[in-house]
Recover the amino acids of this structure.
């Protein structure tokens, strides 16, 4: 298939489909090595001619396909594939060599930390590599399936360049720490707006107008998957990214805590579903039959596959939040529907593999089919594993471990990667109208890639299970067997090295693809031939075949029985498949109804987020510190969610409550523990310990793989910035008072108190010639020392006015109402910890049993 | 008002309600799919490998 003879140039003259549904076809096809008719596509697009077919007349139109845009997306796919996988190898290296960039200037090494680069890798792999691949697939196949050119060349170009600009903007802003810190939705609001325009207006508009103008009445199954992709990604993107901007590079989510978590994983899981699954299934349903030259195995199965996936996927998001503070009923939802997802997913896999029936002999010699077979097999494997991981008891072991990482990569490298490579190898000779430069190199790519994936995922599965078992291991006395978290990290470092090797092999494979593509492109003809096709325009007044009369008509039965009999003869789905608008509406309904079932109760039912009276908003300095935590991407390694399990509560403290997160915008529960959970970090270590730990983590915590955050010790905190962030938080529901007018002053006062404590514990007044009280690290330490302490806050009486307060001493809290927050006895905070500055606004509301829930 | 309505709902049964909704839709789709005639599904499944336009009604229902 990888040669020029595989190109089929064909001219068609197609008869009309009459208004009554009766049709006649006259197909004149001309196969040949070269088309005589070569012209610029746009010059022919509007050329129409009148033709006759039998006794009926139809408007015949000439058209050509826009393959230029497909070439551009294929090229971008290869380039970003290299970038994304190289970034993956780099972040994998940073885990085994955390000091890789320690010799660089701290400001440079800050840009290259794991926390900042991991989102670059994930975004490059998902939105740049897979994104461009699905656009290439959709632009190529939609034109063929609709028998018409894409509706607008201009929209296509705007889509292409707009998407590349978004990727470049992501590659610049994420290392700079400009992030929302929501996984796979890290990009800040200006870029999110650009994504909405490019995706919906440029891409969606072009796609739906092409559907509208199509010349093929019947919409093939691949098009259904594309429709679901465009509609659902739009809904997910818009609702998950609703924010209040604070500046160009900073915003606060309109959702907080539990609600933010639900929205994020509703988005996160369905980004996998509708960005990495449905468009690739569309790709499979088009390119696999093409490559195998076999029709899809079962059209009926594809109908069931499509609707089951669309119905089920959207419910499954909460399985990412098992045993968290998310309400139990929502988690059960997620688990139930995730387990059911297994059925349609395997239906799709079986449909794909059985499409090769009678063509398995080709698989041995065709690298395209090899990639497809292994890709579909990985789809089956990861869609079996997904439901397995969603079962609560399995999830209790796997969550936060590398098991999830292995699962994700078997899907991304195996399913998305190999389906993309198969498609590209099939497309290259057709797009460049020449032979593939080296079939042997493609074979080498296949084998290196396959070995690379196995070498990646097998050790990481082992690492994940090892982590999970070590975290929960208890000795005979009921104590943790591995109380030192670093010990559990060090035990999996050898597996991480194996991953670097596997990832490296995969990158070499992508390099081979790039070489093959460049060499194929270099042997292209001087001018591409543009075949011209003719087909009849679809008639506007087309009507379906009338519903056949009921066999029960005239029989003495109830009218209802006759009506039901007629309804059963209507062939509903076949009718829908020719009505793109109705099909889109039904798909949207399926997605939205399922979403609302989960989202509305979580947002509107108060009891889902029980509030805790002692939980107060962050002080200005703590809020600034939290923003630094977000910016540095700490959530990539640290969770803030203690699950209600003995091993977790022994290791980290009291399990997390929903009411503790009502001021957390965005939530920072994380999904992975390369470092320990930080939900109750406040007061665990002295402020000086944190200061030293930022400077040299391994010195304070031998064996730690955390890189140095030395730049935080010398960077100046912008106190003036804090005021508008306080205003934004207040706008979203945080009950601030004095902070609204004097945020900077209050932040400075607290910073001096934290700095005084560090000095008292052995620190110095200045570090590298700069006062430590003005460093960003001080704000981050203030935040860390606050984390998880509100649950145990015991409000103490206001000190007498005559008592002097020392500049260096920590200020006591001053809330009048001393209410233990939890049903457990309130515990005093560590004596080493600094209590936050007085919060007058919260004093007023402290007497209330429940604080208002910011929605 | 929507908030009042939602607050009065007993969401503890939502899993079951969701399951029933899905079950009904699933059965409807399966039933509809199985009623398609072999001739029609053969033609539709061949669309990607055919360059000609497929008539959805050709070959019987």
């Amino acid at each position: 298939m990888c040669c020029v003879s595989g190109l089929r140039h064909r001219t068609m003259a197609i008869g009309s489909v009459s208004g009554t549904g009766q049709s006649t076809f006259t197909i004149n096809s001309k196969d040949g090595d070269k088309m005589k008719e070569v012209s610029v596509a746009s010059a022919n697009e509007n050329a129409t001619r009148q033709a006759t077919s039998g006794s009926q007349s139809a408007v015949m139109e000439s058209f050509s396909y826009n393959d230029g845009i497909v070439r551009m997306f294929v090229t971008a796919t290869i380039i970003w594939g290299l970038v994304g996988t190289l970034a993956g190898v780099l972040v994998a290296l940073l885990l085994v060599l955390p000091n890789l960039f320690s010799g660089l200037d701290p400001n440079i090494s800050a840009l290259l930390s794991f926390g900042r680069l991991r989102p670059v890798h994930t975004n490059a792999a998902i939105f740049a590599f897979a994104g461009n691949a699905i656009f290439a697939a959709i632009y190529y196949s939609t034109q063929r399936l609709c028998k018409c050119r894409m509706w607008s060349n201009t929209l296509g170009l705007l889509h292409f360049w707009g998407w590349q600009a978004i990727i470049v903007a992501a590659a610049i802003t994420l290392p700079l720490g400009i992030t929302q810190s929501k996984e796979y939705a890290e990009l800040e609001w200006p870029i999110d707006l650009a994504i909405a325009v490019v995706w919906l207006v440029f891409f969606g508009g072009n796609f739906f107008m092409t559907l509208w103008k199509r010349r093929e009445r019947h919409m093939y199954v691949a098009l259904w998957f594309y429709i679901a992709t465009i509609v659902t990604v739009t809904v997910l993107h818009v609702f998950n990214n609703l924010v209040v901007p604070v500046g160009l590079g900073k915003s606060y989510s309109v959702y907080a805590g539990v609600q933010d978590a639900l929205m994020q994983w509703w988005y996160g899981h369905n980004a996998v579903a509708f960005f990495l699954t449905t468009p690739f299934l569309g790709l499979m349903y088009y390119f696999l039959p093409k490559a195998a030259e076999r029709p899809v195995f079962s059209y009926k199965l594809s109908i069931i596959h499509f609707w089951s996936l669309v119905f089920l996927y959207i419910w499954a998001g909460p399985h990412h939040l098992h045993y968290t503070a998310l309400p139990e009923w929502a988690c059960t939802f997620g688990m139930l529907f995730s387990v059911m997802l297994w059925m349609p997913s395997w239906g799709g896999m079986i449909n794909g593999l059985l499409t090769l029936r009678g063509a398995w002999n080709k698989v041995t010699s065709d690298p395209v089919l090899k990639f497809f077979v292994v890709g579909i097999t990985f789809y089956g494997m990861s869609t079996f594993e997904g439901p397995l991981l969603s079962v609560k008891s399995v999830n209790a072991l796997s969550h936060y471990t590398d098991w999830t990482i292995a699962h994700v990569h078997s899907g991304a490298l195996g399913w998305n990667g190999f389906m993309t490579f198969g498609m590209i190898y099939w497309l290259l000779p057709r797009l460049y109208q020449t032979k593939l430069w080296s079939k042997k190199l493609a074979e080498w790519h296949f084998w290196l890639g396959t070995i690379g994936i196995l070498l990646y995922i097998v050790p990481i599965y082992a690492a994940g299970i090892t982590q999970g078992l070590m975290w929960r291991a208890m000795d005979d006395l009921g104590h943790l067997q591995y109380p030192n978290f670093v010990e559990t990290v060090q035990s999996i470092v050898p597996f991480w090295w194996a991953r670097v090797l596997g990832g490296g092999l995969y990158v070499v494979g992508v390099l081979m693809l790039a070489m093959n593509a460049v060499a194929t492109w270099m042997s292209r003809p001087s001018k591409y031939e543009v075949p011209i096709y003719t087909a009849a325009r679809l008639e506007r007044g087309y009507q379906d075949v009338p519903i056949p009369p009921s066999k029960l008509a005239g029989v003495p039965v109830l009218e209802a029985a006759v009506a039901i009999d007629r309804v059963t003869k209507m062939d509903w789905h076949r009718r829908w498949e020719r009505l793109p608008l109705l099909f889109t509406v039904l798909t949207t309904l399926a997605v939205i109804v399922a979403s609302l079932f989960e989202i509305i109760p979580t947002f509107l039912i108060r009891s889902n987020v029980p509030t805790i009276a002692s939980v107060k908003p962050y002080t200005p300095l703590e809020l600034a510190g939290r923003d630094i935590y977000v910016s540095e991407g700490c959530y990539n390694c640290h969770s803030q969610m203690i699950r209600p399990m003995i091993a977790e509560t022994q290791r980290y403290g009291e399990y997390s409550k929903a009411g503790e997160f009502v001021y957390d915008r965005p939530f920072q529960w994380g999904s992975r523990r390369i470092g320990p959970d930080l939900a109750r970090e406040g007061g665990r270590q002295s402020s000086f310990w944190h200061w030293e730990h930022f400077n040299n983590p391994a010195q304070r915590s031998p064996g730690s793989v955390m890189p140095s955050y030395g730049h935080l010790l010398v960077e100046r905190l912008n106190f003036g910035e804090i005021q508008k962030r306080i205003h934004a938080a207040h706008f979203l529901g945080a009950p601030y008072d004095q902070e609204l007018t004097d945020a900077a002053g209050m932040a400075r006062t607290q910073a001096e108190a934290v700095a005084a404590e560090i000095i008292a514990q052995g620190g110095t007044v200045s570090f590298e010639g700069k006062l430590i009280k003005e460093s960003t690290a001080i704000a981050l330490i203030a935040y860390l020392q606050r984390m998880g302490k509100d649950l145990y806050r015991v409000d103490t009486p206001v000190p007498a006015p005559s008592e002097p307060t020392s500049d260096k001493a920590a200020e006591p809290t001053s809330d009048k109402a001393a209410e233990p927050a939890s049903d457990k006895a309130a515990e005093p905070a560590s004596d080493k910890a600094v209590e936050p500055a007085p919060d007058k606004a919260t004093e007023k509301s402290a007497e209330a049993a429940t604080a208002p829930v910011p929605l | 008002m929507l908030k009042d309505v939602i607050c009065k709902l007993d969401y503890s049964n939502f899993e079951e309600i969701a399951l029933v909704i899905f079950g009904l839709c699933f059965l409807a789709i399966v039933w509809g799919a199985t009623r398609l005639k072999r001739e029609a599904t053969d033609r539709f499944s061949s669309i990607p490998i055919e360059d000609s336009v497929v008539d959805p009604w050709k070959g019987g229902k």
Observations:
- Chain B has a mean pLDDT of 73.
- The interface with chain A takes residues 2-3, 6-7, 9, 11-12, 14-15, 17-19, 21-22, 25-26, 29-30, 32-36, 40-42, 44-49, 51-58, 61 of chain B (CB under 8 Å).
- DSSP finds three helices and no strands in chain B.
